Amino acid sequence: MREKIVAGNWKMNLDLNEGKELIIDIVDKGVNANVTSIISPPFTHLQTFKTMLSHTNIALAAQNCHQQDEGAFTGEVSVKMLKSVGVQYIILGHSERREYFQEDSLSISFKVNNVLKHGLKPIYCCGETLAQRQDGEHFETIRLQIEQGLFQLNELELINCIIAYEPVWAIGTGETASPEQAQEMHAFIRNTIANRYGEITANNISILYGGSVKPSNANELFACSDIDGGLIGGASLDADSFIALTNSF
Ligand code: PEP
Fold first, then answer.
1. Backbone phi, psi, residue 28, to 5°
2. Does the pTM of the predicted model rise above 0.90?
3. Which of these is catalytic: 96, 103, 128, 166?
């Protein structure tokens, strides 16, 4: 059976003290132990949170990394460094990084390779813009993002990846893809993987949905057969919402 996952992407929100308060609240109230819960705070919080979460089943993710292990790359953080402070997952290719930092699927593929080389798991994000959907280009956009970002991997590597489908028009907008729209794209992604790697591999990969997911719409989305959980922005900044999302399967 595929892993059920709820991953909270805090983005560039909450300073260390605010973040510690939220972690204490989440740990006190308790996430669903049958779901893999992941929190992805800013880099500056990771080491402190690792200690705070050491006796819990909540894992830590970083929001980005560099593709090299070390060197003259001012301002960057490597996978090796993130691993040394206890990070287990790294979100890659979030639409905000594609839009504001000029990342594309090819450059992200190098990061994917490095994350896997160090034994961590990439959460590879893909998603189409509103214009691409309105022009009927959404399937082709996602197919290319999946192929260019992940198809350099062999089967054993791919199996360690998590995919997050996040339609750009639904991120932070309050607009959610309908369960039918989300399920249709998740099935398409799984089928794209099956065509290249076979059904067994495709059926073992967790594909998360992201885009204005909240406790009020999560049940319907997570009930879809190809949706294995969520990558959550805004609603992960509130302990009750985050916990409710882990209980929405
Ligand atoms: C995200 O940042 O990945 C996201 C899905 O944000 P939100 O839930 O706020 O739309």
1. -60, -45
2. yes
3. 166
Active site (annotated) includes residue 118? no
> Is residue 186 flagged as an active site residue?
no
Model confidence pLDDT, tens digit, residues 35-69: 999 999 999 999 999 999 999 999 999 999 999 99
pLDDT at 1: 77
* Residues 6 or more apart whose Cβ sits within 8 Å of residue 87: 46, 50, 60, 61, 62, 120
Q: Which domain holds residue 167?
A: 5-246
> The domain that contains 159 carries what CATH number?
3.20.20.70
Two structure tokens written together for 46:
């990771």
The minimum-distance atom of ligand 1 relative to the CA of 230 is 5
Q: What is residue 175's predicted lDDT score, i.e. its pLDDT?
A: 86
Domain count, the chain: 1
Q: How far, in Å, from the CA of 59 to the mean position of ligand 1?
A: 19
Which residue has its alpha carbon closest to ligand 1 atom 8? 233
Q: Is the CB of 212 under 6 A from ligand 1?
A: yes
Cβ partners under 8 Å of residue 101, min gap 6: none
